[in-house]
Specification:
This protein is an alpha/beta fold and 278 residues long. It has 2 domains: 226 residues, Spore Coat Polysaccharide Biosynthesis Protein SpsA, Chain A; 42 residues. It has 9 helices and 9 strands. Strands 1, 2, 3, 4, 5, 6, 7, 8 and 9 form a 9-stranded mixed beta sheet that branches. Helix 1 links the parallel strand 1 and strand 2. Helix 1 runs parallel beside helix 2 and helix 5 packs across helix 6. The protein is globular and about 50 Å long. The N and C termini lie far apart (65 Å).
Amino acid sequence: MAEILKLSIITPSFNHGRFLEKTILSVINQDYSNVEYIIIDGASKDDSVEIIRKYEKHIAYWVSEPDKDLRYAMQKGFARASGDVVAWQNADDYYEENVFGQVMRVFREHPDVDLVYGNTNIVNEKGQQIDELCNIPLYSPLDIFGGMPLQNQSAFFRRSLWEKAGGIAFQELNYDVDLVFRIIRLAHPFFIRQVLGDYRSHAGSISFSGRGENLQRDPWVIRRRFMGKWSKLPGWCFAPAIVMAKVRRYVYLVCQGDWGYVLRHIKRILNKTTATRR
């Protein structure tokens, strides 16, 4: 009989009670039974704890106590996790229905694969889709130049890969970007061409908070660490690589029939260029 791999999901939470129930339900109502669910709440002042208690029989471990920020909550959660495969889902985001079974089947059937990821929907506060982040297979050195190659909302990795990558870098404001780049450098990835998770865009999310400006600047600082001897070159030297990465991405998506997505994003780039020239 095939080994039933354990999946650990960690949710760091702080004052996202209005979204937290959706997140929890997206984990406990999946099509896979061997799931260890961990919630680390940073002493929320809203109804988050009441919501957690409502579903605590489905939660392997939870705690509500002060912590410094999401980085520390995530590290605490991963330290508790005992799964063969791990992932984290923020308290305002959620998984699509019936994706765990498919993801874990890939890990079971492909022992060499240590990262499984898919596409991510962007939804608004009401859960209505407003955009989609279409990813592509990772196999090129250009991957670090093409924007975020994957999103945690739709990514799962073996515990061994998490340990090899070194976990959370506490000195990083943009810790998730840093972690993703460290992981993809070491990973043997498998891409599932479908939406696995949803990122909720709202005024209280980190990317749209007062820290947003730093989060936009920081990724290039992080990218340079993975460029070896080329890291000292001025930014304009990387323009060809950025263009090639975007072309590679769009060619793949066009070949998959995602014309609408490609045209929307090209239009967005042209609009930004026009606005900058003004």
